[in-house]
């Protein structure tokens, strides 16, 4: 069974996604066979006000950015010319949600992939703010993944059905979004049927971005009542609104039990301590229910841009047998770098000495970190302490018991297996680096 417009043809079985107002299909250009995505609005969508019906393609026509899915054309369905069809860029890698459902990412994305998500979402959101647009439905399912010829991912914001023009100081009262990612003020009105007493600003997007980043970093949602977010809505609202300052997650593990707050990302996620240290303050500042206390986009863009512009220096502490990623702004001096190393390893600057590629690496405190040699996880700078150091326990631990409660789920079982495979690969790499370091030292 097929459907078409003047220029595009698709099978009704080739569904990429479905929503309450439209379905998305994989289609081809009739002349060139170019693959695109078409969004076909259903008849129920035409019961909405006309300005709401036209809002999505009007917004997309104004946007032009590599991290936003492109709109190519607006056409009409052959079977029913009244039905509009948006012809958009096809993203071969599915959505960020699809990626997170891969068992390999059961405990979050690898650090390199997470940084790409961070960069793409920040740049895409910056383009929206420059054009005075609020998205209102940020979530992993609305972030598409394009895979380049080099295998590198590019993530793109999509689904602008709820988007509207809104400047930083403007407010709106209509409610859109997906409940797990919905700002608590909107959640209260939409899902608890409370009277609408508040107007909402652009900070609602920041809350959704915070939940999305936490989900991408850990593989799970930050706020989970007993039985899950959709089963226990009152406790879900309680968790998000009573969250202590600085907390980035809350979980209720027992029915009617206490809420356990987390101020750090879980130990089983794949991000390094260096990245966690810089990311957690951002999450704490945008996962803030009070719109007056929540960061604005200016602060958010400044903090995330700082992370993305950091130089990542890979360090392997020889005596401790631990690997570290030091995230440091390129304009910092090596003296600040020494302090960052101390913060992660406990080794004082005076006791730090370095080797790189089998040779001593002399670092003057006044040097800029941008002059450090480029490193990778396989070719780090070797750190040796001038003082005796204890072997540090391996940083990986089993997932917390709250996750193990759900081990009957196949996805989690396979995810744990991938976690242990990752541990085994890291141990093998550490063994090679220990031998390399000691040979270099001798």
Task: List the defining traits of the structure above.
18 strands, 11 helices, Ubiquitin-like (UB roll), 442 residues, 5-stranded mixed beta sheet, Phosphorylase Kinase, domain 1, single chain, 6-stranded antiparallel beta sheet, alpha+beta, Transferase(Phosphotransferase), domain 1, globular, 33% helix
- How far apart the termini lie comes to 72 Å
Question: Can you name the CATH architecture of the largest domain?
Answer: Orthogonal Bundle
The CATH C-level name of the largest domain is Mainly Alpha
- Give the proportion of residues in helices: 25-40%
What general form does the structure show? globular
| Average predicted local confidence, pLDDT | 86
Number of strands: 18
The main β sheet shows up as:
6 strands, antiparallel
- The stretches of 5 or more residues where confidence is low (pLDDT under 50) are 170-174, 400-408
CATH topology of the largest domain: Transferase(Phosphotransferase), domain 1
Overall domain count: 3
Order of helices and strands: EEEEHEEHHEEEEHHEHEEHHEEHEEEHH
CATH superfamily of the largest domain: Transferase(Phosphotransferase) domain 1
Q: Work out the helix count.
A: 11
Sheet-strand content, in percent, reads: 15-25%
Rg value:
24 Å
User: For the largest beta sheet, what order do the strands appear in spatially?
Assistant: 1-2-3-4-6-5
The assembly state of the depicted protein chains is single chain
Structural class: alpha+beta
GO cellular component, one term: cytoplasm
InterPro entries: IKK (IPR051180), Kinase-like_dom_sf (IPR011009), Prot_kinase_dom (IPR000719), Protein_kinase_ATP_BS (IPR017441), TBK1_ULD (IPR041087)
Binding site for ATP: 39
Keywords: ATP-binding, Cytoplasm, Kinase, Nucleotide-binding, Serine/threonine-protein kinase, Transferase
């Amino acid at each position: 069974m097929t459907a078409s417009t003047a220029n595009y043809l698709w099978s009704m079985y080739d569904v990429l996604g479905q929503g309450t107002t439209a379905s998305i299909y994989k289609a081809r250009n009739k002349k060139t066979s170019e693959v695109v995505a078409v969004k076909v609005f259903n008849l129920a969508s035409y019961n909405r006000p006309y300005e709401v019906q036209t809002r999505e393609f009007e917004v997309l026509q104004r946007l032009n950015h590599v991290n936003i899915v492109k709109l190519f054309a607006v056409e009409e369905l052959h079977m029913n010319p009244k039905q509009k069809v948006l012809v958009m860029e096809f993203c071969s890698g599915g959505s960020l949600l699809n990626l997170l459902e891969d068992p390999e990412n059961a405990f979050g994305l690898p650090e390199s992939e997470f940084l790409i998500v961070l960069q793409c979402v920040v740049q895409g959101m910056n383009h929206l703010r420059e054009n005075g647009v609020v998205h209102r439905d940020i979530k992993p399912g609305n972030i598409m993944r394009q895979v380049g010829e080099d295998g590198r991912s590019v993530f793109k914001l999509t689904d602008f059905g709820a988007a509207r023009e809104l400047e930083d100081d403007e407010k709106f009262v209509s409610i859109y979004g997906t409940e797990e990612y919905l700002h608590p003020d909107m959640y209260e009105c939409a899902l608890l049927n409370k009277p609408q007493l508040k107007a909402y600003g652009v900070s609602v997007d920041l809350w959704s971005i915070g939940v999305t980043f936490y989900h991408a970093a850990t593989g799970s949602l930050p706020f989970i009542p007993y039985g899950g977010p959709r089963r226990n809505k009152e406790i879900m609202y309680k968790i998000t609104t009573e969250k202590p300052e600085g907390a980035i997650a809350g979980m209720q593990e027992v029915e009617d039990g206490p809420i356990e707050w987390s101020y750090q990302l879980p130990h089983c996620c794949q991000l390094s301590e260096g990245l966690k240290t810089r990311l957690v303050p951002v999450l704490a500042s945008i996962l803030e229910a009070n719109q007056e206390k929540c960061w604005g986009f200016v602060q958010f863009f400044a903090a995330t841009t700082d992370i993305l512009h950091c130089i990542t220096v890979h360090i392997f502490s020889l005596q401790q047998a631990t690997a570290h990623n030091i995230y440091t702004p390129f304009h910092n001096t090596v003296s600040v770098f020494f302090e960052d190393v101390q913060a992660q390893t406990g080794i004082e600057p005076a006791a730090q000495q370095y080797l790189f590629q089998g040779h001593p690496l002399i670092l003057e405190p006044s040097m800029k970190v941008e002059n450090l040699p480029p490193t990778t996880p396989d070719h780090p700078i070797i750190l040796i302490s001038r003082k005796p150091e204890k072997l540090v326990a391996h940083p990986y631990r089993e997932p917390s018991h709250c996750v193990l409660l759900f081990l009957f789920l196949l996805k989690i079982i396979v995810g744990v297996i991938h976690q242990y495979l990752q541990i085994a690969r890291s141990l093998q790499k550490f063994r090679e680096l220990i031998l390399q370091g000691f040979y270099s030292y001798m």
